[in-house]
Amino acid sequence: MQHDGEVTTTRASLELLYDISRELTEALDLSTVLRRVITLSMSNVGAVNGSIIVFDSGGDPVEGIISVGDRVIENAAKQLSETLDDGLAGWVIRNQRGALIPDTSQDDRWLRRPDDHEKQTGPKSAVCVPLIAHQQLVGVMTLVHPSPNFFLPGHLELIQAIADQASIAVQNAQLFADSQRRARVMTALAKSASVITASLDLDEVLQSILSQIREALNVETVFLALFDTQGEYLNFTATSAGNDAEYAGLQTKVGIGFAGQVAKSGQGIVIPVTEMDESFSLEFERNIESDIRAIICAPLKSEGEIIGILEAINPIVGKFDPDALEVLTGIGSLAGTAINHARLYEQVQNTEQRYHDLFQDSIDPILITDNQGNILEANRQAELFTGLDNITLLAKSISQLVSSKEPIPGLETDGVTIGEIHSIEAEFASSDGTQTPIRLYVRSSYVENYQLLIRDISERRRFDRLREDLISMIYHDLRSPLANIVSSLDVFNTMLPDDGDPAYRSLLNIALRSTERIQRLTNSLLDMSRLESGQPVINLYSTSPVLLAADSVEAVSPVAAAKNQIINLKIPSDVPQVKVDGDMIRRVLINLLENAVKYSPPDGEITLGAALESQNAVLWVQDSGPGIPAGEKDYIFDKFTRLNPAGSQKGFGLGLAYCRLAIEGHGGRIWVESEPGKGSRFSFTLPINDH
Ligand code: ADP
Q1: Which of 262, 322, 378, 639 fits a disulfide with 393 by CB distance 3.0 to 4.6 angstroms?
Q2: Confidence band (pLDDT; 50, 70, 90) for 145?
Q3: Which residues line the pocket of ligand 1, CB cutoff 6 A?
Q4: Ligand 1, atom 12: nearest CA belongs to which residue?
């Protein structure tokens, strides 16, 4: 019989557990599950009071329910926390097993409260079991009966069996709540993401960030602050409170105040409705919003770096949702990236604008073509120069605009290196048929485009013609009459009787020297223009440096004598013959000697020397003049360079330019060595005659 009785009891318990399990698994909302668990448990063991504490995955109490007779109190986690620290629930959790207390007044594990006193409710009996699901503690349930020794070991077993079912239901409810919360957060973030990233305009992005936060968190005010360039201050740049002007220019130091602290640590903070945490100074925020009931702040992040903060103040209804910080932090990461993109886009646009302006405002006409020469872009100057508007230009190719003898580099030839500039001379044909001479500079770029810069060279061509005219004028109108004068004077010289008046001969000599000087000048001018146009020196013959030197000294000696200067000759006898146009080199030497005489003081000393140096003859003229400053040594050989144009010495700045052209035309080199105050030494090399 006893055996049958056991079977009946077991079956009854199994049915009970099955019913409980079914009833519990039907509910998914934690509060409903807890109500059912406590009611079912109490009714099945005849308990009068009971409580359940629920833990989150981190082991912190998150929910609590108390049932006293017919009354149920929810959200009682805080009230129940004492029993976790010092009471029976704490013991059960620490030992991970159920406990039966037949008489609470006799057991230390029971936390005695004032109402446990003999004269109040007095000793009771209690059972307490852990709620464990999948090896994880999800809660603890305590049941109480007002009479000691009411609960028996069988009760404990039954309650533990119910708890095992209940814990699965509690865990499911928690997981469900968690996934719902996650879904809410994700929906809010996804919605914000699509709105925030819809624009690349920084102001629009900032405004949509604020409006999304306002909507997602339903708050009164939202602020957005960004670091200054040094990362030292947070500048409040946008607000959704509607009156931006009031907040413009507001700033707080990083690390100071609520926002400053979040900016420094990168950790979001929320201070919910009731408790205002005194460890954060809200002084800065209170200046903006006098009545702060609740505040939440999260970092704005881009690529892992904090670039500012988001701050939301005062929920419009009730308090912040538990996931408000998560939502704000999520928006913070999205928004940081969106802000950075908008900033980058702004930078790119500014740079593009700058380059576009440079292109448009360039003083030269510029065309961009593809590698077939089709015009892709044309600046304002190109329109002005060609007389064609942009649309017409973009329909043309460069070969329709210019014609040239040489092919256009890159476009009509191969082998143009990217970045290198090539140029050719060409003619631009206007629609009215006029031809303008141009130099076309071509540069190929990385994107298979060609940049063509047009420079009008009509002016230079005019100068070239002028120079040619001048040269032919010198040649025909000066040179031949001069030659006539020189030969007439020569004849005159032979006709003068040896015993005649010496004054005549002296006058004749002056006339001869002056005409020779003019002849030298005209010949040098002609040589310069020939050499500049690239013609070679052709009239080469072998001659001795000694002879060249002697002739040159003779030409300048009257002027040197007038200043009482001495000209020394230092030419070693072993200096070999040189192969040169003797007339040209003589004029080089005369030029150098004339300068030496001009710049040396009266009574000064001048030396003309020569030497043989590694297969070249070197000739030099040393003076005792003021010398040439180091920085000017290269320039003085340029045309029209005069170091002291306002000074007493006259000249055109052409002498040394001629010397360089003539020497380089012979394949030689000319240079000056000088220490200011110690005179100058002009030297040049000449090829020796090795045949
Ligand atoms: P210029 O007709 O002016 O003499 P040059 O071409 O011969 O033209 O010389 C250019 C400039 O170089 C001169 O103006 C002068 O300033 C400087 N210069 C030339 N030779 C000497 C020199 N021997 N001593 C000092 N300065 C010189």
Answers
A1: 378
A2: very high
A3: 595-596, 599, 623, 625-626, 628, 636, 641-644, 651-657, 680
A4: 636
What is the tens place of the pLDDT at every residue in 620-645? 999 999 999 888 888 899 887 777 75
Q: Indicate whether 277 pLDDT > 80.
A: no
| Ligand 1 atom with the shortest distance to the CA of 644 | 16
Q: Closest Cα to atom 19, ligand 1: which residue?
A: 595
What is the distance between the alpha carbons of residues 672 and 656, in angstroms, rounded to a whole number?
11
Distance 642 CA to ligand 1 centre (A): 6
The Cα–Cα gap between 468 and 460 comes to 12
CA of 592 to the centre of ligand 1 (A): 9
Encoding tokens for residue 553? 């000294």
Cα–ligand 1 centroid distance for 209 (angstroms): 73
Rounded Cα distance, 32 and 252, in Å = 48
With contact defined as beta carbons under 8 Å apart, do 166 and 29 qualify? no
Residue of 642, 672, 678 best suited for mutating to test ligand 1, as the one with most atoms within 8 Å of CB: 642
Q: Specify the 3-state DSSP secondary structure of 135.
A: coil
Q: How many A from CA of 641 to the centre of ligand 1?
A: 8
Q: Looking at the CA of residue 643, tell me the nearest atom of ligand 1.
A: 16
pLDDT for 1 equals 39
- Residue 241 predicted with pLDDT over 80: no
H/E element, 79: helix 77-86
Answer yes or no: is pLDDT of 117 > 80. no
Statement: residue 690 has pLDDT above 90? no
Dihedral-angle region of residue 350 (phi above 0 means left; psi in -120 to 50 means alpha; beta otherwise): alpha
Pair 62, 77: CB distance under 8 Å: yes
User: Residue for token digits 């996804």?
Assistant: 190
Pick the residue whose CA is nearest to atom 2 on ligand 1.
651
From residue 155, alpha-carbon distances to 9, 35, 46 in Å are 13, 20, 9
Q: How far is the CA of 361 from the centre of ligand 1 (A)?
A: 42
CA distances 594 to 87, 238, 555, 648, Å, are 119, 79, 9, 15
- Going from the Cα of 594 to the center of ligand 1, the distance in angstroms, rounded, reads 10
Model confidence pLDDT, tens digit, residues 183-224: 878 888 888 888 888 888 888 888 888 888 888 888 888 889
Q: How far is the CA of 598 from the centre of ligand 1 (A)?
A: 9
d(CA 608, CA 595): 13
Judged against a pLDDT cut of 70, whether residue 50 lies above it is answered with yes
Task: Report the half-sphere exposure of 486 (CA within 13 A, side-chain side).
Answer: 14
Cβ atoms of 490 and 508 closer than 8 Å: no
% residues pLDDT > 70 (the chain)? 95
Model confidence at 691, pLDDT cuts 50, 70, 90, reads low
CA distance 645 to 649: 8
Q: Which helix (H) or strand (E) holds 368?
A: strand 366-369
* Residue range 565-613, pLDDT digits in tens: 999 999 998 899 999 999 999 999 999 999 999 999 999 999 999 999 8
Instruction: Choose which residue among 588, 656, 681 to substitute to test ligand 1 binding: the one with the highest number of ligand atoms within 8 A of its C-beta.
Output: 656
Burial per residue of 241-277, b for 16 or more beta-carbon CB atoms within 10 angstroms, e otherwise:
beeeeebeebebebebbbbbbbbbeeebbbbbeeeee
Atom in ligand 1 nearest the alpha carbon of residue 645: 14
- For the ranges 140-144, 145-149, 465-469, the lowest mean pLDDT is seen at 465-469
Residue 212: how many other CB atoms lie within 10 Å: 24
DSSP 104: G
Locate the ligand 1 atom nearest the alpha carbon of residue 637 and give its number. 6
Given a contact cutoff of 8 angstroms between Cβ atoms, the answer to whether 382 and 361 are in contact is: no
